[in-house]
Amino acid sequence: MNFRKTLVTTTALASFAMVGAAAAADYTIGITQNNVGVDSYQTTYEKAFIAAAEANDKVDAVVLDAGGDVARQIAQMEDLIQQNVDAIIIWPTNGQAVIPAVRKAHNAGIPVIVTNSNIAEEGFDFVRSFSGPDNVTQGARSAEIMCDKFKEMGIENEAQVVQISGQPGYTTAIERAGGFEDRLPEVCPNVTLVETQPGDWNREKSQQVMEAFLVKYDDIDGVYSGDDNMGVGALNAAKAADRAGDIIFVGATNFAVGYEAMGRGEYWGSIYQSPVDDAEAALQTAIDVLDGKDIPFLNYFDTPKITQDNMSEFDKPVF
Amino acid sequence: MAQSHLKAVGEILAKHGILVAFILFMIAFALLNPRFINSDNLLGVVRSSAILGVMAIGVTFVVVSGNLDLSVGSMMSFSTIVVLDLHDKLGPLLGIPAMFAMTMALGALIGFLVGYLKLNSLIVTLGMLSAIHGLTLTYSGGKNMDIADKDGTWFGFFGQGELLGVPVPILMFALLAAGLTLVLSKTPFGRKVYAVGGNGVAATFSGIPRARIVFYCYLISSFCVAMAGLIQASRSLGSQNTVGQGLELQVLAAVILGGASLLGGSGTIFKTVIGVLILGFIQNGLLLVGLEFYVQYIVTWVIIILAVWLDIAAKRGQLWSPIA
Amino acid sequence: MSAQAPVLELKDIVKTFPGVIALDHVSLDILPGEVHALMGENGAGKSTLMKVLGGIYQPDEGDILVAGEKTILRTPLEAKGKGIVFIHQELSLAEELSVAENIYMGELPRKSLGRVDWSKLFSDVDEILGRLNCNFNAQTIVGDLSIANQQMVEIARALTVEATTVIFDEPTASLTDAEKVVLFDIIEDLKSRGVGIVYISHRMEEIFKISDRISVLRDGEYRGTLKASDTNQDELTQLMIGRSLEHTRPDLSQSNGDVALEVKGLSCGKLFHDVSFKVHAGEVVGFYGLVGAGRTEVAETIFGMRNKSSGEIFLNGEKVEINSPADAIAHGISLVPEDRKGQGLVLGMNCRDNMTLPQIDDLTVSGLTAPQSEQEIFKKYRDQLEIKTPNWKQTVGNLSGGNQQKIVIGKWLSMHPNLLIVDEPTRGIDVGSKSEIHNLIRELAGQGYAIIVISSEMPEILSVSDKIVAMFHGEIVHTFTSSNVTEDKLVQAISGIYEPENAA
Amino acid sequence: MKNTNLAKRLQDSAIWIFIALELAFFGIAGEFLSLSDGNFLAPDNMLLLIKQTVPLGIIALGMTIIMINGNIDLSVGPIFALCAIVMLDSMTWPIFAGLGDGVIVIAWALAILVGVVLGAINGFIVWKTGVDAFIVTLGSMLGYRGLVFLYNGEQPTYHLNWTLVDIAESAPLGIPLPILIFAGCILFTWWLTKRTVHGRNAFAIGDNRTAAVNAGIRVGPHMVWNYVLIGLLVAISSATFYSASGSVNPNDGMLYELWIITAVVLGGTKLTGGRGSIIGTVGGVIAIQLMRKGLGHIGADTAMVNLVIGSILIVVLYLDRQLNRKGEEELNS
Questions:
Q1: Contact check, Cβ <8 Å, A79/D293
Q2: Beta-carbon separation of D200 and C97 below 8 A
Q3: Does D306 map to a domain?
Q4: What is the per-residue pLDDT across B53-67, written as a single tens digit (0 to 9) for each?
Q5: Which residues of C are less than 8 Å from D5 in CB distance?
Q6: Which domains does chain A have, with CATH numbers?
Q7: pLDDT at residue B77, as a whole number
Q8: Contact A97/D293, CB-based, under 8 Å?
């Protein structure tokens, strides 16, 4: 055994700088993210989270990525529980499938904070807090943006709208679609939502779904997509069929590509949501929970509307 | 008498069965939804199957030479991400050839492993499927790859442009198909690919450098994948790391549907193109008829099994297999 | 051997393949406790007859009587059920499984729940192996056994069933002398227990050592049965060869060409060693020997399919290095392989493409293939070799064996090689057109080609070759010239018992 | 003959040597690179490792027998998803309303029924049409995925029954239930391949099909039983996993077939049939999961994991080829 000891001491100094751990970090916080490789929002979220953790010398962060696979996320939860971290932050790949794993952490006395996309109701009593955007409000706000634009154009009585939703089973997708579908009839009763198809947060798939819509429906007045990444995919399809001019595109989670499209006047509006706020809010919530502070169960951070009119007030998203 | 009769019918069916099936499908869908046969729709379908088609042409070479290639899916993601990245770093004129070189280097590696080291092509390309996916993620750091200034570049020409009224992807698809048909059926190299796939030992006995032929087939396949990556990247001027995921099995389905045998030695590019179009039009037809996209999976299952079964039945002269 | 009722009887068996009458009213009877040898040239119908007996082929006419009762044998399994066991020359064993599982394949003793009764299986098999005094046991993995031992496993399989007839097809081809002794003891043991044995072989001295009666087949016809005790090698050879030799030998033009090929001290691992010979332009050198003598391996090494371990090859006096068939072809060597289907043809391709495959690179017009010039080559050799095929588009797989053979010959002749090697030129060719091929070979020699012919049919070698190289177990025993060769010297040479008195 | 025995023994134990190397590497590397204080080689971390190999492991056992038989099955992914969907959804069917928690047993039974039926369909098509198993199961992979989507569109199938979750997470005798089920499947398939006539015939057919046919083994039904067996094992794996998670997405099980074939080949089973071992496959599955977990432990991201596993597969393939290279008799074709 002494072989390992000598090995440990000689290289401990070398590794010291790399891990950047302070003398004795009070908390080790583990995070299992949804799918870092899927889009820039998530990649920027991870960078912001790591930066925030390193900046705060009270915290050691174990950063894992489930790569979109439920089985792997459950395995990562078990690993974090087994390594008895002080708190676990989870960005669920599937709001329902992770509930038993969250319960296991709860039973092991490890507080669980959900970030970005909430888990289903049944899991609420195993979770200390949800930190992220209020997706239902976001959906409603997008409906309002679209309806105001239709009124401005005077077509709010015969407009037809299609929706490209996020990954099925993903809470954010369900909440945003729900928010949009509930709010739209309230503000623009005569606008009809003709069809909804999932784009799985994937730009290429959204482009194909939009192409199918364009073939199926001769006049489309508005497209609501779960996020700008999918929205731009739909925009590309419309531009290829050169019908982009007479379609109002409204999305959510304003990406850089969305912001530029708005700058070019092709994309009408979106919801401004910064992954950096998302990451920092999640870390701060975890620290507050460990410090014993009481924080609201639903800890939303604000996500304002952004349209071509007021885009100058916001600086271009960094993802 | 019955058996030779079945064999005759089988022969015709095996030779042109795919064409017959293709025409029947088109008629059926046209009747169900007239919008199906309007020129925009037809053109749209061919344009969207161009990417799969270009890759299928490359894989046809590999299958005719008696091997398999499961790595084309992740290799296509790799080429798409790389060309977008290099477009901003080196500019399109340098970026595109650099991407072709990098993608064909991967093809050369596989060609070396399967051709010269004679390793099993299914397992090698299965390993490369995962390794290249890892390579792509490392290269892009997990981020989407988007061209910074989308309006200021002519790069969109390949995916979105039109020439003489025909969308560029279709032209590239047609040009590549014509060119490689010439190579496969009208050049000594093509004849050798059929020989190596049909009977490797006899080919070597006839002085054909079997390892080199297999190596070139994988090189051609990677060239086609690079072409597909170019079209895909240019189509949306941005892409995710997983854009090519799952394409390898769709490509294989199209090649098999076209009539190429997995044992090697048979199959043509024309038939593969028909296989690709069948897949494309079924998906489109079902959509227009109002069925969900996944019904296409079930239809594809049925016609793959039927197409290959009839082909084998014709060759052996009996419908049911002789296995006791 | 008293006139007991025969264990097995064949009456007027006829079997035809497209264009070939393989068996022409052959009758044969096997008595219990008798070793009945069956002799005949290659292509005389021996293996076809045995495949009929073994249930692999169905006879077109004639009956098979097992213990006097007419039976139909549809599959090898049915034949085995009737007590007829066939030990093939090529072994059909599962190399990954144990000896026991191979012997009882398909009939493993069972316990409840479909479990294998291993104890019973191993004890039964060990008992049989004991009787054959094998040096391995029931649990050895077949893949680890030598060829000879694997053959013992096949023989052991025969003893698992109450066999009334056991057919051996060239069993001693790859056995050492010691292993042969063990085999003959087993045959004696089977004989003593009243089993009828059919023994197919080329080797005269084995035949005379163990067989009671000898039947001879020639060109698919039954030539008669002799008692081993009152006949001798010459009478048997005469019966086998039939037609007198003189008139079959064409006038051999004296070869005066220079040395096209010279091989010095060539060897390749265990396959053959220290092989040296010369081939002059316009001369046919015949290689004669038994299976496993190394003749094909020598040809494959010259052609670059195998890497030589030592020795040199000279073409037209100039030393050459040949590491691949492509090198050999570049040096103008052509090899018509013994295994047409496996090594000679791409069955899925059409006739023309197969024929022009080796020279496809030269038949191009601006990079593309030139169909017309290919067509010409195909037509030329189709007519010259009289290949019966509707048109060039016909896939080779659909042709008869003889025509396939001719396509391969045409393929290599069209290369205009300066050294042509033909391995078993007339195997699978119908008797009628055999002499056609022989004349063609002689004609080519006349035109100055240097030719090597490998054959295991004595009349063919004698009628075609200017020089005959006899090989046994990887070595050249002796080289005869057409003037000083006789049958029995040749037979002795290939059986390794030839003492060159003072012959040239 | 001696070197072939050595080569064979080396081959059989190759995968376990590889696992030992992995353990050593991650054990030591883990000390420095990993942020968590837990020791990688701690017993309960290893137990967790085994538990995480269960889903792919159980299916790999069935795939081993299929490949020994000379066939292959690409459709295990969608079957895995379909069994789970039927299991979870059947618990909400009104006709079982009265049973309360008793419905769990029925749900498992239905899941197994689905697996067996889908396996049998594959088997019959391969048998009766004579089409190559690769193409048949490539087709059924697409077809069964279509059935998964047909069942519930793109929406996940979701039913959280806490008793079911408690059963799935229970650990009788201190060992998690999934590991016990996995052990049971290993025992059964090992017993099948080593002790039963059916198992030994699988080797015979895979190694020399003509010899097997001549010996009177009925190859057709034998194949169908093997496909039924893999269907059963996929159903067991699916029921075990989804009982603990309660929700299944239509895209679940994606690429499972590729990882499972990789594990079986790493374990020493030949693709062309005739040779393979259940124990080797268990080694193959553990080796891959250990690689994933180890790389995760030392902070490597998904990119590195994919890169490493893909390359290791090719290296092992090359070594395997060197090990059983025949003598110089081989023609250099």
A1: yes
A2: yes
A3: no
A4: 999 999 999 999 999
A5: 144
A6: 25-132+275-302 (3.40.50.2300), 135-273+307-313 (3.40.50.2300)
A7: 94
A8: no
Chains that touch A (3 or more CB pairs under 8 A): B, D
**Is the predicted ipTM greater than 0.95, yes or no?**
no
* Number of other CB atoms surrounding residue C254 within 10 Å: 8
A196 close contact with B: CB closer than 8 A = no
Greatest Cα pair distance, chain B, in angstroms, is 70
* Residue in chain D lying closest to A28 (CA): D36
Q: C217 - beta bridge partners?
A: C40, C222
* C371 close contact with B: CB closer than 8 A: no
Same domain, C130 and C270: no
- The percent of residues in chain A predicted with pLDDT above 70, rounded, is 91
How far A160 CA sits from the closest chain D CA (Å)?
A: 23
Count of domains forming chain B: 1
Average pLDDT over residues A4-10: 46
Residues 6+ apart with CB under 8 A from A169: A94, A95, A96, D155, D156, D158, D247, D249
- Residue C45 in domain: yes
B321 is a domain residue: no
Residues 6+ apart with CB under 8 A from B16: none
Asked if B240 and A211 come within 8 Å (Cβ–Cβ), the reply is no
Range of the domain at B60: 35-316
Pairing of strands C333-336, D247-248: unpaired
Contact A39 B236 (CB under 8 A): no
CB contact under 8 Å between A203 and B236, yes or no, is: yes
C259 shares its domain with C210: no
How much is the mean pLDDT over chain A?
85
Q: In this structure, is residue D21 part of a structural domain?
A: no
Count up the domains in chain D and report the number: 1
Give the residue from D205, D217, D277, D332 with the most C CB atoms within 10 Å of its CB, the best one to mutate.
Answer: D332
Question: What one-character DSSP code corresponds to residue B113?
Answer: I
DSSP for A274-312 reads -HHHHHHHHHHHHHHHHHT----SEEEE---EEETTTGG
| Residues C22 and C98 placed together within one structural domain of the fold | yes
pLDDT > 90: percent of chain D: 46
C25: left (phi > 0), else alpha (psi -120 to 50), else beta? Answer: left
Residue C503 has pLDDT above 70, yes or no: no
A-B C-beta contacts closer than 8 Å: 63
C303, C328 Cβ separation under 8 angstroms: yes
Question: How would you label A254-289 residue by residue, b for 16+ Cβ within 10 Å and e otherwise?
Answer: bbbbbbbbbeeebbbbbbbbbbbbbbbbbbbbbbbb
Range of the domain at C265: 246-332+417-494
Nearest to A40 among B35, B143, B151 (CB): B143
Asked, for residue C388, whether it belongs to a domain, the answer is no
CB contact under 8 A, A70 and D37: no
Q: Are residues C143 and C196 in the same domain?
A: yes
Cβ of residue D275 closer than 8 Å to a chain C Cβ: yes
CATH code of residue B78: 1.10.3470
Q: Write the DSSP symbol of residue B52.
A: H
B129 in D contact zone (CB under 8 Å): yes
Q: From CA C202, how far away is CA C495, in angstroms rounded?
A: 9
Cβ pair B82, B123 in contact under 8 A: no
Residue C308: closest CA among chain D residues belongs to which residue?
A: D328
One domain for residues C208 and C274? no
**Based on the domain organization, do C170 and C251 belong to the same domain?**
no
Cβ distance C325 to B206 less than 8 Å, yes or no, reads yes
How far away is chain A from the Cα of B250, in angstroms, using its nearest Cα?
Answer: 16
Of residues C343, C363, C367, nearest to B202 (C-beta): C343
Single pTM value for the model: 0.85
Q: Specify the CATH number for the domain of residue C486.
A: 3.40.50.300
How many helices (H) and strands (E) would you count in chain A?
10, 12
pLDDT at C457 over 50: yes
- List CB contacts (< 8 A) between A39 and chain B: 144, 240
